[in-house]
C-alpha cells in the first residue's frame, strides 16, 4: 500500500538548519555529523526522513539508512544498510559477488579482493564450504576500514547521507 507520509507541521527553523548543513557538506565535500535528539515522539525520525527524502528527490544525495534496535534483528546494522542500498538482500553469496563486481568497478574499486571482502561483510560465510571465494576479516577494524573505503568512493560521485536510527527500549 502506498500511504502518504505524515506532513511536518511547523519546524521551519529545524528544516532550514538541516538543509543548510546538507548544502555545506555538498559544497565543501567535508563530512559532518548532525545529531537529532529529544524525547520520544518529538519528531526526530520524521525530520531525518524529510531531509533524506527531499535530498534524494532532488538528486542531491545517496541515502543509506541503518537501524539499530535494543533487540537485534536481521534488518539492523551497517551490513543490512549496505545490502539494501546495493539491492542484494535476497541474493546468494555467488549472486551477490556477481552483482558487486560491476558496481565496485564503476566506483573505482577494481580489486577482486574488495568485492570478496564486501561480500563477506554483507553475508558472512558460516564455513570453509561456502560457495565461491571466502575472505576472513582479522579484526573489526578491517571491516570498518572496508566500509570507510567503500563509502568514500561512493561519496566521490555524490554526497552520501548515512541516516542512523537508534531505537532504545526502556523496560
Structure characterization notes:
With 171 residues, the protein is mainly α. The chain is built from 6 helices and 2 strands. It has a two-stranded parallel ribbon with strand order 1-2. α1 (12-28) crosses α2 (44-57). It is globular, with a radius of gyration of 18 Å. The two termini are 33 Å apart.
Major sheet summary line: 2 strands, parallel
Q: In one word, what is the shape? A: globular
| Separation of the first and last Cα atoms | 33 Å
**What's the total count of β strands?**
2
- The stretches of 5 or more residues where confidence is low (pLDDT under 50) are none
Q: Give the oligomer, counting copies of the same chain as homo and different chains as hetero.
A: single chain
Number of helices: 6
Arithmetic mean of pLDDT: 88
Share in β-strands:
5-15%
Order of strands across the biggest sheet? 1-2
Rounded to an integer in angstroms, the radius of gyration calculated over CA atoms is 18 Å
Structural class: mainly alpha
* Helical content class: 40-55%
* Series of H and E elements: HHEHHHHE
Which properties best describe this structure?
single chain, about 170 residues, two-stranded parallel sheet
